[in-house]
């Protein structure tokens, strides 16, 4: 097996996050699902954008956020995702490359336009997300470079992107390429509604032994296994997935790797400002540790440190030096 060129290559939604603080009254006025994620069409996205206060635009998407965290920790990463040939497509491409991630998927001509997520952040730190998925839903299998997929130690797949047919086919092919090259496949379930729609597919991938590392939160774990009890849910997956990582917000996280179990507390922080990207950055810390051969507990701690940093400010990109922060906290 050749030495991997990348620690992780991820396939995910190429989304530009448009984020602005707001008061609860605006959430009510716009009739938004506070704290949730709602899919909107292009017209809806334009209407909400017009209602927003001064906003910050930055490349986002769950897997891309994870890679940005990994890159900040010193990992070598590449991203595969679809943007359109438009202004937001340029914003995404520039931003992701600027943080040291290789991104070479050709932009798509014509409609729909580049995906965007309009994020309203209320004073309590809750983020209300309204996502227009646009061009990100049209990533074709032909956009995959088999050599690129095979050159990463870990292939990381974003559950959100399982919904549309083209990217789902692309990810299925990527799994086969990665496994054929002797690489690991990591998968994040993304959100319970994704499991509600595609749980049978995910359970089949697990039963067939095609997932090596699985990221879920406690709600996703319950949806995936049908077990309302957290430990019963873990037990249902144990032995089927070599590495299971289950996060529990303020209650910390649990990892199970080849029969070994580790549990860590959440990192203490003074104030939760914005929970955007907490799970993405947890995955960043964990995967970086895993790629370096760190212990299960250390990988979990790295995830918790990165997640705590991200929820202490607006946005899903770190503001502190993550590498220095992790080194300091791990002592």
What's the gist of this structure?
By secondary structure, this protein is α/β, with parallel strands linked by helices. Helices cover about 40% and strands about 20% of the residues.
Structure overview:
The strands form 2 sheets. The chain has a 9-stranded mixed sheet with strand order 6-5-1-9-10-11-12-13-14, with helices on both faces. It has a 5-stranded mixed sheet with strand order 3-8-7-2-4. The model has no long low-confidence stretch (mean pLDDT 93). With 331 residues, the protein is α/β, with parallel strands linked by helices. Strand 7 (115-121) and strand 8 (127-132) form a beta hairpin. It has helices at residues 24-29, 42-51, 62-72, 87-98, 146-150, 165-180, 192-207, 218-225, 230-237, 278-291, 296-310, 322-330, and strands at residues 6-11, 15-21, 37-39, 56-60, 77-80, 102-103, 115-121, 127-132, 152-158, 184-188, 213-217, 243-247, 253-257, 260-264. The chain has 12 helices and 14 strands.
Order of strands across the biggest sheet?
A: 6-5-1-9-10-11-12-13-14
User: Which strand-content bin applies to the residues?
Assistant: 15-25%
Sheet with most strands = 9 strands, mixed
Q: Between the first and last Cα atoms, what is the distance in angstroms?
A: 34 Å
The pLDDT mean sits at 93
User: In percent, how helical is the residue content?
Assistant: 25-40%
Structural class: alpha/beta
Given as residue ranges, the uncertain stretches (5+ residues, pLDDT < 50) are none
Helix count? 12
* CA-based gyration radius: 19 Å
Shape: globular
Order of helices and strands: EEHEHEHEHEEEHEHEHEHHEEEHHH
How many strand segments?
14
């Amino acid at each position: 097996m050749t030495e991997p060129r990348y620690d992780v290559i991820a396939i995910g939604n190429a989304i530009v996050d448009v984020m602005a603080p707001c008061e609860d009254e605006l959430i009510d006025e716009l009739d938004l699902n506070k704290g949730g994620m709602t899919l909107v069409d292009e017209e809806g996205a334009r209407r909400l954008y017009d209602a927003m206060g001064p906003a910050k635009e930055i490349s986002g998407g769950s897997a891309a956020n994870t890679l940005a965290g990994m890159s900040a920790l010193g990992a070598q990463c590449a991203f595969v995702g679809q943007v359109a040939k438009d202004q937001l497509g340029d914003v995404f491409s520039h931003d992701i490359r600027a943080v040291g991630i290789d991104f070479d998927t050709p932009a798509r001509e014509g409609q729909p336009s580049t995906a965007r997520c309009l994020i309203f952040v209320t004073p309590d730190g809750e983020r209300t997300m309204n996502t227009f998925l646009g061009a990100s839903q049209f990533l074709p299998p032909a956009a995959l470079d088999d050599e690129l997929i095979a050159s990463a130690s870990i292939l990381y797949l974003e559950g959100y992107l399982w919904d549309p047919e083209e990217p789902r086919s692309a990810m299925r092919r990527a799994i086969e390429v990665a496994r054929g090259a002797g690489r690991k496949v990591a998968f994040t379930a993304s959100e319970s509604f994704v499991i509600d729609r595609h749980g049978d597919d995910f359970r089949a991938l697990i039963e067939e032994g095609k997932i090596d590392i699985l990221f879920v939160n406690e709600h996703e774990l319950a949806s995936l296994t049908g077990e309302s009890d957290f430990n019963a849910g873990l037990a249902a997956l144990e032995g089927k997935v070599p590495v299971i990582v289950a996060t529990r917000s303020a209650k910390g996280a649990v990892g199970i790797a080849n029969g070994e179990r580790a549990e860590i507390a959440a990192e203490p922080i003074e104030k939760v400002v914005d929970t955007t990207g907490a799970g993405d950055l947890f995955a960043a810390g964990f995967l970086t540790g895993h790629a370096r051969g760190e212990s299960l507990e250390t990988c979990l701690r790295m995830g918790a440190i990165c997640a705590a940093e991200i929820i202490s400010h607006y946005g899903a990109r770190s503001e502190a030096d993550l590498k220095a922060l992790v080194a300091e906290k791990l002592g």
